[in-house]
Amino acid sequence: MPESPAQQFAAHLLAALAKAGVRNFFLAPGARSQSLAIAAGQLAEAGKIDLVIRIDERSLGFLALGSALASGEPSVLITTSGTAVANLHPAVLEANHAGVPLILLTADRPHELRGVGANQTTNQVGIFADAVRECVDVAAPSGADGEAEYAAELAMHAIASSLGFDGGQVGPVQLNLAFREPLSAVTPNAAQLDPVIALPMRNEPQVEFAVVDGAVPTVVIAGAGAGEDAVELAESFGWPLFAEPSSGSRFGANVIVGYRALLESELAEHIGRAVVFGKPTLSRAIVGLLKNPDVEVVVMKNRNYGFFDVSRRAAHFCDELSVSGEPDFEWLEHWREADRNLATEVDALTSSDSVAYRDSSAGEESLTRREIVEAVWRATNESDQLLLGASRMIREADRWAPAKPIRVFSNRGLAGIDGTVATATGLALAEHRIEGESTGFTRALIGDLTLLHDAGSLAFDRVGEPRLNLQLIVINDNGGTIFEALEPAQTLEPQVFERLFKTPQNVDLWSLAQAYGWEYVQVENVGGLETVMGASGRILIEIKL
Ligand SMILES: Cc1ncc(C[n+]2csc(CCOP(=O)(O)OP(=O)(O)O)c2C)c(N)n1
Ligand SMILES: [Mg+2]
């Protein structure tokens, strides 16, 4: 009989995950989860996993999400029972909608203590509803024969399920683990175990093909998570590519940067088909195009973001698309020419004294959002990572960012303004693990409210964590100025609008940075921004507009 059946089970579960190659573990402290914490600590000590610790489970959730986004590997999260579990919910929802693999290990009371008012006990089974691929409610280990093997099997099942090996979507899974006292022991040492595991196999779903008429003027729309396939398809058939900044497809000769404006032009009237990759949610013009009954819609299946069919009338859902007949390569030329002309027109407007393209709030001397986007794109190279916050900056990037093969992320599963600081940190941590000290920069381009929503995620473990090159570029326009485009901005009294929607804040970001041990730099022009983007360490960069 083991000294603590809880410890024996936790040690085998975590050792099996580590043996299967899962490396990224995230832990918030608690009593009921102590056996998991001890096992994770032992594996980390032996160099078999990387363990990151946070106090706040909400922050921990997004940190794990960022790490899984950058690495493509499942992140393991360990929490105690009660509200600790509920705090994972925002990140779990985002992971569900964006197809990010997370393995949640939530500690719980044994079944005899549930429903009787025991401390820190709620119904954790099904707490995430259909946002998890699976919730396995695991009874408290008793030390019976076969429990160690069962723990290893559960670990393999969780990996397979989070990565969609059953042919389904990638996403979060929950193992709700009941533990009975004694809750822990220092043996067995998880790092010394060598559990027998059968690595799960990926069950490839059947590939569905569709063939369409090549003569129909077609455009390719690449939303969040579209990836390189969208570029390949567009280039194969000479189709213009409308790629959002976090699509992973905004590069190559077919990208039409000014697509938003051009969708209002006469050229757009000739579009006969739209092929959709990923989840395009940034512009109303795209949704309008997809809803246009004269436009045939083809939706490419996506293992992360699911199938995006706002039209509800897609002619095809498929994995592979090819065309019959000759595609018309002139079609692409028309779009490229229109895009070049548009860029020239806009440049003429912005370089003259016209204020049409300047931000209404920006003074003569201050930076414009366009200049910020362009400077960030220039500074970002293949070894760097960029995270775009929800709200205005991702839309500005969609308007101005040139085609460039760089890694750009954004939480577009649910487009929340929450968890962005933690997501950026998770991206940087994963990159550091993979690349070591030679890592590039991870930058997040975010609004002021987006920063403040996740201010608690500025906290980090100064002893246990590597030095990261992590920059938060905060566009401080004193509130949520995206709402200025909403109708109430015109219909309400200005003070009422400000209080209900814009919610100005007066937080001193220098003090905030100081409190959490971040460097702070305020920049006022392109040169200043370029200089600070070359500096290493954790830096909060404020741009006041
Ligand atoms: C968690 C969450 N709460 C509320 C919203 C609604 N929302 C969208 S944008 C926004 C304001 C963001 O302000 P800021 O970060 O300063 O960006 P700005 O629009 O000023 O560029 C809010 C509250 C959201 N997307 N997510
Ligand atoms: Mg703002």
Tags for this model:
six-stranded parallel β-sheet; binds magnesium ion; single chain; 17% strand; 545 residues; alpha/beta; binds thiamine diphosphate; 18 helices
Describe the structure.
With 545 residues, the chain is of the alpha/beta class. Helices cover 34% and strands 17% of the residues. The protein is built from 18 helices and 19 strands. A six-stranded parallel beta sheet has the order 2-1-3-4-6-5, with helices on both faces. A six-stranded parallel beta sheet has the order 15-14-16-17-19-18, sandwiched between helices. The chain has a five-stranded parallel beta sheet with strand order 9-8-10-11-12, with helices on both faces. The N and C termini lie far apart (66 Å). The model is unreliable at 353-362 (pLDDT under 50). It binds thiamine diphosphate and magnesium ion (MG). Thiamine diphosphate (TPP) binds at residues 390-393, 415-418, 447-450, 475, 477, 480-482.
